[in-house]
Amino acid sequence: MHIAVAGNIGSGKTTLTRLLAKHFKWEPHFEDVVDNPYLDDFYHQMERWSFNLQIYFLNSRFRQVMQIRESGKKIIQDRTIYEDAHIFAPNLYAMGLMTNRDFQNYSSLFELMESLVQPPDLLIYLRSSIPNLVGQIHKRGREYESTISIDYLSRLNERYEAWIHTYDRGKLLIIDVDTINFVDNPEDLGHIFNRIDAELNGLF
Q1: Per-residue b or e along 116-153, where b marks 16 or more CB atoms closer than 10 Å to that residue's CB
Q2: What band does 4 get if pLDDT is binned at 50, 70 and 90?
Q3: Using one digit for the tens of pLDDT, what is the confidence trace for 184-193?
Q4: Which residues are catalytic?
Q5: End-to-end Cα, the chain, rounded Å
Q6: Dist CA 134 CA 130 (whole Å)
Q7: Judging by beta carbons within 10 Å of its beta carbon (0-12, 13-18, 19+), is residue 5 exposed, middle or buried?
Q8: What span, in angstroms and rounded, lies between the C-alpha atoms of 58 and 182?
Q9: How far apart are CA 100 and CA 59, in angstroms?
């Protein structure tokens, strides 16, 4: 079984992935942030490194999805292969930070990869307002994220909402993280557990 958690930067994907993995006894697969050789360069010079970064993420997540299906285990994944292709890469292209040639090359590669992978059995989307995202990003204090602008986050949020609105590859659970505090409130976390149970077991 493959569960995936999607959401903007700072929405709480990694934290929720850890909590769900612990509760449901799922194996967590996290985004490769620490070992990513392009991330720091990208945030300092987006136009130069955008294509390299997106190809790195695409390769990393494609490999991850293939391994998830081959393992036969119950796995929860922090961020999906779809987010790079439907949100991050098109946003960089629209902002003039990726050339048309690079974007077409990237899109063609994604289409090929997408035809070879299965979607997650359940997609959990963390919906968040910009002030909440900014607060969470500042709270965790990653140096390479300190230059992220509110405009950049807003553009990503708009694309996330557009993508989720048309998502039809499988079961979808939307969690509004502005109104629910799954980190500090056990009742809120329990509510999420119950909603996931209902989705996976066909209860409504």
Answers
A1: ebebbebbbbbbbeeebbbebbeeeeeeeeeebeeebb
A2: very high
A3: 999 999 999 9
A4: 78
A5: 20
A6: 6
A7: buried
A8: 29
A9: 20
